[in-house]
Amino acid sequence: MADEELxxxxxxxVVRVAKQVLPSVASLRVRTxxxxxxxxxxVITPDGFLxxxxxxVDGADTAEAAFADGTETTADVAxxxxxxxxxxxxxxxxxPTPVVLGDAAGLQVGQLVVALGNPLGLSGSVTAGIVSALxxxxxxxxxxxVDEVIxxxxxxxPGNSGGVLADSAGRMxxxxxxxxxxxxxxxxxxxxxxxxxxxxxxxxxxxRRAWLGVAAAQTPLPPPLAARLSRxxxxxxxxxxxxxxxxxxxxxPGDIVVAVAGEAIVSATNLQRWMLEEAIGRPVEIxxxxxxxxxxxxxxxxxxxx
Length: 306
Description:
Oligomer: single chain
Strand content: 35-45%
Structural class: alpha+beta
Shape: globular
Strand order of the largest sheet: 1-2-3-6-5-4
Radius of gyration: 22 Å
Low-confidence stretches: none
Helix content: 10-25%
Largest sheet: 6 strands, antiparallel, barrel
């Protein structure tokens, strides 16, 4: 019996994805003042843009990219965004065919996914597993987190960062970014928000974000308010930066933010979704619970610097 006939559906799907995606995955060699490191990247446009993790190229202006077909090229770091752990490079030479981008919004827990990259310097490695959970949060820096992170049990190791997490159709649905433990890998999702970030990095080399100037944490709502709003949590303000948009709007420590522009706020990630470029300089109504009453204030977010 031919080997092809012996392949079960699971194996056949992984083999198909490997054949389709691996040619578009690069092994990166990165040199910085801290030394030499490595990671993975994927071709996302025919004219040479590559997508990787921001931490892979942290402190570097260029990287050497090598592909399975023997193609090698220097790639310049076109832009990086540590707050989403995404970075874009531009190859100086020819690159293979781009990956097909999917949409992580359609993923389901238990679904087959395939991780492709270069763990521990072993180029062209493929591991497979399932989507273990969805909606995880990944801390990145400056109090920010990446929303809707994909958790998978597909084996990931150092060097996989920046590589592809693909579905059974060979569509890229995530950028492998972290190993949280044995059998616990995390990937930044490919969705409308991350594609917007990637587009900004390709065209401007940076991502503009709005800023309020508050430090806040999720907190239980007082029982009467929870019953009134039909939800259990809000976002309690712990600190307001002097002179910030939040200070100008008279937000105060102890306020519990429950809504922005009429939309429920139950966690810090909900608030972050509002802090996009479109919010810069535009008045927005923020509803808070203060001294036993709901109070509306108007804030005008400024641009996050640095």
